[in-house]
Amino acid sequence: MTSAVVTENGLTDALNCLVDRVHGAEFAVVLSPDGLPLGSSRQVGENLAEQISGVVAGLIALGLAATRTCDAGRLRQVVVQMSRAFLFIATIPNGTILTVRIAGDDVEVGDMAYEVALFVGQAERHLPITLGPASSVTIGDTGALQRRR
Fold it and tell me: From CA 115, how far away is CA 134, in angstroms rounded?
């Protein structure tokens, strides 16, 4: 079974809606399994998308190492708490990666966690790619990108 192909504008609109729904959300970016930007919310320039790509690649690698070390199953999310912001990184079942930044003194981190989980659950409607069973990849228990069988 393959997901429907959606235009890039559909993904941009979905990411803009995600950012608009949570107070303090600043941007959202979706990356391919190999770290290439697939789409982003408004105000994300090429430079920021490339920087986020590099940061997320490193954080995903650390998360995958933790899942291997702890024998804890599939990596679902990495959250980075900074003094003035949070970075949510969530894996999507087809291998793509959602990254959202939320900042401010009065932000509701729980609201963002909920919205990220909701987006991941509905991601196939928004992604501008089609991954069939033969080419689907997931971030698996071994920490490597694996093909589904």
Answer: 30
pTM here?
Answer: 0.77
Torsional class of 104: left (φ above 0), alpha (ψ -120 to 50), beta (otherwise): left
Under DSSP, the state recorded for 139 is E
CA atoms within 13 A on the CB side of 131: 18
DSSP secondary structure string for all residues of 91-109? E-TTS-EEEEEEESTT--H
Per-residue pLDDT of the chain (149 residues; tens, 9 = 90+): 333 334 457 888 989 999 999 889 999 999 988 888 988 999 899 999 999 999 999 999 999 999 999 998 889 999 999 999 999 999 988 888 999 999 988 888 899 999 999 998 887 666 655 443 333 344 543 344 443 33
Q: What is the H or E stretch that residue 146 is in?
A: strand 145-147
Closest CA to 8 of 100, 112, 128: 128
Closest CA to 11 of 106, 125, 137, 144: 125
Query: Per DSSP, what are the bridge partners of residue 40?
Result: 29
Query: Any idea how long the chain is?
Result: 149
